[in-house]
Design a protein that fits this description.
- The complex is a heterotrimer of chains A (about 190), B (about 350) and C (about 400).
- Chain A is mainly beta.
- Chain A has one helix at about 40-50, and strands at about 55, 65, 70, 75, 85, 90-100, 110-120, 125-130, 145-150, 170-175.
- In chain A, about 5% of the residues lie in helices and about 25% in strands.
- With about 350 residues, chain B is of the alpha/beta class.
- Chain B has helices at about 25-40, 55, 60-65, 85-95, 115-120, 135-150, 155-170, 185-190, 215-225, 250-260, 275-285, 310-325; strands at about 5-10, 45-50, 80, 105-110, 190-195, 195-200, 205-215, 230-235, 270, 295, 330-335, 340-350.
- In chain B, α4 crosses α12 and α7 packs across α11.
- Chain B starts with a strand and ends with a strand.
- Chain C has about 400 residues and is an alpha/beta fold.
- Chain C has a domain at about 5-120 and about 205-220: 3-Layer(aba) Sandwich (Peroxisomal Thiolase, Chain A, domain 1), CATH 3.40.47.
- Chain C has helices at about 25-40, 65-70, 90-100, 120-125, 135-150, 155-170, 185-190, 215-220, 250-265, 270, 285-290, 300-305, 325, 330-345, 385; strands at about 5-15, 50-55, 80-85, 110-115, 190-195, 195-200, 205-215, 230-235, 275, 360-365, 370-380.
- In chain C, strands 3-2-4-7-1-8-11-10-9 form a 9-stranded mixed sheet. Chain C has a two-stranded antiparallel ribbon with strand order 5-6.
- In chain C, α2 links the parallel β2 and β3 (about 80-85).
- In chain C, α3 crosses α14.
- Chains B and C meet through β3, α4, β8 and α10 of B and α2, β3, α3, β8 and α9 of C.
Chain lengths: ~190, ~350, ~400
């Protein structure tokens, strides 16, 4: 366990030596090293080859990307045999614009958007980025395509077992294709 | 006074030093196996309860992902305790007492491998006075062992014998992580890790899971030829501050054992969550288990210690003694906190 | 043994505040617990078991805090449990305590829930310590937008709920936010946190605790004050993310409501329930839950807000206490709903008392709107029947 000084530590403020002690700051650091599970490793390997993969449930055909190794709805396990390559174009089904709250480790300072996508040919992704698109232009129905990190810069060092938000080293985000927006009937039952 | 509830299915994962699978991934087959062995339909299960801990793997809301291993669609009636799966079993046992549902699934799971126990567990202590001191499980257990040694309640040789017996019992147990034929004399020649504890006095660091299916009496009889009846179950907690406790005693274990009826008849076997060797002797004393009782035929927590599942695994091993080895009356014990602060005791019986 | 009657005979809560720096963590829970015991005129030794609930441990940095709180809660030598079901935990914890009484396992159970957000960092905890955390509002905002689009609700519905709950909170001395000058204009002009949620449409971050004493029929008859009888309980959970999930009207919420209505003998919730305390951390969840729990028909929930039905003087008052929008000690927020519903049917809610409240509904939800806990409490065991 390590004590670390928080950036906004108040220790520089004048302290009244006679004031009663009502609290103390105690900062700790815990380190976790988790092995990447096989299905996520395969997902990461595919990202390096500019391929987006998922597992298609053999029973209900729902697609999970990144693969989980099972379909939680049918409670069946999925394997490499259920792997499919997904299309890298799709529709924004919903979005959220987050005004970042400051907390220890928060690097965002300006409002940012996260979107949910329905990919052409099937498969849904959540918590995706639209870099370069002003947040006020983000909308449901927008057609987008993937933006891969360029060769040489692409990496999967931050990929974890813990869902999305860690593939930015390989996928910069998604960009509008400029096509007309999709009709809500094409995606409205898939917003999640 | 209470309705009899039976264990009708149980399953465990192996205990791994570090599994590359995620918690829901290794829970998945364990839950499926327990349900299959119980012979119930997954959708028939009336209540589900889980035990796990966010801090183990360092993930807030870790238990939410574990729900994926259950198959919670369509929706299910479900709860979760931030405690060992044995307390999830207790909550389900209470829920089944209502009599409006007849089956329950309980499971416990944990991955200790990603973190460092000596860093994490001080957070389980009083946050103002003990966490900043870095009060870790091995140090606290060592204080307890020292107190027992000083009080003449155990010897280092007895501790080594307990460890050697546990490792030997674990040979052939597919779920065990540490096993082997060790000479207590040789073990005593090993250096201390934290005096008076040597490596063999400590549990392994483990990843693993356990699942159990419970049923009410009529349902259990319909499902199983050899239901394992929960004849008594109780749990108690002691004072937290180690300085205010006599660490050579465990009043909570004694009281829970009494309430569960451990002493009411002869006990054949006991599966105890003795995470450190000396704790086995203390637990046996408090539960009144004599030399005629076989202790931890599975190897116990010294052979496999998947935290949050290890207590529930004692129920699975105790049930196995009755359902597969023809034993009649078996005690299962689980613990929470450091130096046996909180304890749960159950008496299981065959027909 | 099967089910027997259970009742709430003691209720206590702390003043909820941004920062309760006058008490430690055990001091906070003990304050609520002592008040619940005082209300029931019981001593610590009268309690058979303690059931504690709170949201994730990383919020305060204390792992399995029931262990270090055992001393402060007088649990030494007693059974103690710790429940954790995300945001619904306060509700689930009360239900675990209720079940212990209903099944006759214990006679008197103390149940406590708390959060001391100022002693940690919940935003850090929610983000798993990483940058770019969405916050709870970031997860729920798209679903609210979908509700607005599907139901055709006017945008001022959310503002109205925000104003109503803060006005109610001014009548509740324990509430964190007291904003007597709140107005539609102020809500509308407050900063947008997660479109469509404005700052004043969001819950605060609070320190606080709540406790209840539950007992059986014999115990309730000896109680010094009117008991609140538990007429029905239900818990329901579903998977949080899968393609095609209805996040606006989660199936687990629908089923949980029907289970609790059935258990309490309620066939027409709008008519037979006098007051509801619903978990509304963001204003739009009031109409969403009215519809999501089949209290209102599709697209009717927002009309109940618009026509004033959910006001404290309306025909279906929702959150007369001020709700989660006015006090949000996360782990306690669910149990506060349960306790406030009980206070109402006991007639002990003080200035925010709803007239003639005999049947109360409390609900808590958590996770990705996937965990639900509910109870119906009544002023008598046949309170629902008397309503027909």
């Amino acid at each position: 366990m390590t004590d670390t000084k928080q950036p906004d530590s108040k220790q520089d403020e004048a302290v009244d030596p006679n004031a009663p002690i009502t609290g103390m700051d105690y900062f700790m650091k815990l380190e976790y090293h988790e092995l990447i599970c096989p299905v996520v490793r395969e997902f990461a390997d595919a990202l390096m080859e500019k391929r987006l993969i998922g597992h298609k449930c053999p029973k209900c055909s729902l697609i999970y990307s990144p693969p989980r190794g099972y379909c939680p709805i049918c409670t069946v396990q999925t394997t490499k045999a259920d792997e499919i390559e997904m299309q890298t174009r799709g529709i924004v089904t919903n979005y959220t614009v987050v005004t970042p709250v400051q907390y220890y480790g928060q690097e965002e300072t300006e409002p940012f958007a996260k979107v949910s996508l329905q990919l052409d040919g099937g498969g849904n992704l959540s918590l995706q980025d639209l870099p370069g698109v002003p947040v006020e232009q983000v909308r449901s129905g927008m057609r987008v395509e993937i933006v891969w990190a360029p060769d040489g810069e692409r990496h999967v060092d931050d990929v974890t077992n813990r869902s999305w938000g860690s593939a930015e080293g390989a996928i910069r985000g998604w960009k509008p294709t400029g096509e007309p927006d999709a009709d809500p009937s094409e995606y409205s039952d898939k917003v999640f | 006074m209470v309705n009899d509830i039976a264990i009708v299915g149980y399953a465990q994962s192996p205990s791994w030093r570090a599994s590359e699978l995620t918690e829901p991934q290794f829970l998945f087959p364990v839950i499926s196996e327990a349900i299959e062995r119980a012979g119930v339909e997954r959708r028939e299960i009336g209540f589900t309860c889980a035990g796990s801990c966010d801090y183990l793997s360092g993930q807030t809301f870790a238990f939410v992902m574990n729900l994926e291993a259950v198959g919670a669609w369509p929706p299910i009636s479900e709860s979760h305790v931030e405690m060992d799966g044995a307390w999830a079993l207790y909550e389900a046992w209470v829920r089944l007492q209502h009599g409006d549902i007849d089956t329950a699934l309980v499971f416990g799971s944990g991955k200790s491998s990603p973190g460092k126990p000596a860093e994490i567990y001080p957070l389980q202590m009083d946050p103002y006075t003990l966490t900043p001191l870095g009060a870790d499980p091995v140090s606290l257990a060592a204080l307890q062992a020292r107190a027992m040694l000083d009080a003449g309640k155990i010897t280092e040789r007895e501790m080594a014998e307990i460890a050697a017996r546990s490792r030997k019992s674990a040979i052939g147990n597919p779920y065990a992580q540490v096993s082997g034929d060790d000479d207590p004399e040789a073990l005593l020649k090993e250096p201390y890790v934290t005096a008076p504890l040597r490596r063999h006095d400590l549990p392994p660091i483990s990843d693993g899971a356990c699942a159990i299916v419970l049923a009410t009496a009529d349902k259990a009889k319909a499902l199983s030829k050899r239901p394992v009846w929960i004849r008594g179950i109780d749990h108690r907690i002691d004072i937290h501050q180690p300085g205010m406790r006599d660490l050579t005693e465990s009043p909570s274990t004694r009281l829970a054992g009494k309430k569960a009826g451990v002493g009411d008849a002869k006990v054949d076997v006991a599966e105890l969550s003795a995470t450190f060797s000396h704790q086995e002797k203390l637990l046996c004393e408090e539960l009144g288990l004599g030399d005629d009782v076989e202790i931890n035929p599975s190897g116990g927590a010294l052979a496999a210690n998947p935290v949050m599942a290890v207590g529930l695994a004692r129920f699975a091993e105790a049930a196995r003694q009755i359902a597969e080895h023809g034993k009649h009356r078996v005690v299962a014990h689980a613990t929470s906190g450091q130096a046996l602060q909180q304890n749960l005791v159950a008496v299981l019986e065959g027909d | 043994m099967s089910s027997q009657a259970a009742a709430v005979i003691g209720i206590g809560q702390t003043k909820h505040k941004k920062k309760r720096d006058d008490v430690s963590l055990p001091g906070l829970v003990r304050e609520a617990a002592q008040r619940a015991l005082d209300d029931a005129e019981l001593n610590w030794t009268d309690i058979d078991a303690v059931v504690l609930g709170k949201a994730p441990d990383p919020f305060e940095g204390v792992m399995m805090p029931e262990l270090s709180m055992a001393d402060a809660l007088g649990a030494n030598g007693k059974p103690m449990m710790r429940v954790h079901t995300a945001g619904s935990v306060g509700g689930s914890t009360a239900l675990v305590a209720t079940h212990l009484v209903q099944t006759g396992v214990h006679d008197r159970v103390l149940t406590v829930a708390y959060e001391k957000q100022a002693e940690g960092n919940a935003q850090w905890g929610l983000a798993g310590g990483r940058s770019g955390g969405m916050g709870a509002g970031g997860i729920f905002a798209p679903w609210m937008r979908t509700y607005i689009n599907k139901s055709g609700a006017p945008e001022d519905i959310g503002w109205k709920v925000a104003v109503k709950d803060r006005q109610n909170a001014c009548k509740n001395p324990y509430a964190h936010l007291h904003l007597p000058d709140i107005s539609i204009e102020k809500v509308k002009e407050s900063p947008m946190l997660w479109d469509p949620i404005h700052f004043l449409e969001s819950c605060p971050s609070s320190d606080g605790a709540v406790a209840m004493v539950l007992t059986n029929e014999a115990g309730a008859k000896k109680a010094p004050r009117k008991p609140a009888w538990v007429l029905g309980t239900a818990m329901r959970s579903e998977l949080g993310t899968f393609p095609g999930r209805d996040t606006v009207r989660p199936q687990a919420g629908v089923e949980c409501a029907h289970m609790v209505f059935d258990a309490a003998g309620i066939t027409n919730p709008r008519e037979q329930i006098d007051i509801a305390e619903l978990y509304v951390p963001f204003s739009w969840y009031e109409p969403m839950w009215l519809e999501g729990h089949d209290i209102a028909g599709p697209g009717e929930g927002w009309r109940m807000v618009e026509d004033g039905s959910t006001q404290i003087t309306g025909d279906f008052p929702v959150n007369p206490s001020g709700g989660v929008l006015s006090s949000n000690p996360i782990g306690a927020s669910g149990m506060l709903r349960f306790a406030e519903a009980a206070l109402q049917v006991r007639g002990e809610a003080g200035e925010h008392q709803v007239a003639d409240a005999h049947v109360g509904l409390a609900q808590a939800y958590g996770g990705a709107a996937q965990y639900f806990a509910m109870w119906v409490v009544g002023s008598s065991l046949d309170a629902v029947g008397a309503r027909k």
